[in-house]
Design goal:
This protein has 164 residues and is α/β, with parallel strands linked by helices. It has helices at 9-21, 78-84, 104-113, 129-139; strands at 32-36, 42-47, 95-100, 117-122, 145-148. The chain is built from four helices and five strands; from the N terminus they run αββαβαβαβ. Strands 2-1-3-4-5 form a five-stranded mixed sheet. Helix 3 links the parallel strand 3 and strand 4.
Amino acid sequence: MKRQGYLSWDEYFMAVALLSAQRSKDPNTQVGACVANAQNKIVGVGYNGFPRGCSDDILPWEREGAFLDTKYPYVCHAELNAVLNAISTDLRNCRIYVGLFPCNECTKVIIQAGISEIIYLSDKYSSSDQVRAAKIMLEMSPQISYRRLETSLERLSINFTVPD
């Protein structure tokens, strides 16, 4: 008899997104994203951080203050990085798994890339103009759907100890 309690595909890809988020150096918000194709193969991962070569020791991580003194003009979101890091330029019919519902800028990238479904965990910024704009665009794009991941999992533990 096969093992019980294994991860569903949705749980697996979301776990990869959440693991990727652990690479983020943002002291406030760590977000990861994972793009999977129709054959359930991972084709791209990303997390929120500054562009390659831009020092995370020099650029600001602040959330408030003058625009240029905050992280917002510099940080690349996880979804953008997952699309840019993809091993294929053709992401049509792929799914993107992300911890937070995408902002309007990432939604534009997701739509343009041809990704067909967004699976997210949290929509805590649903009342923000950025997420509201994202949902307006998604409603105008019938080729793409979105849904919150439904799972009974609360946590997943990874053990770095080699089993005997």
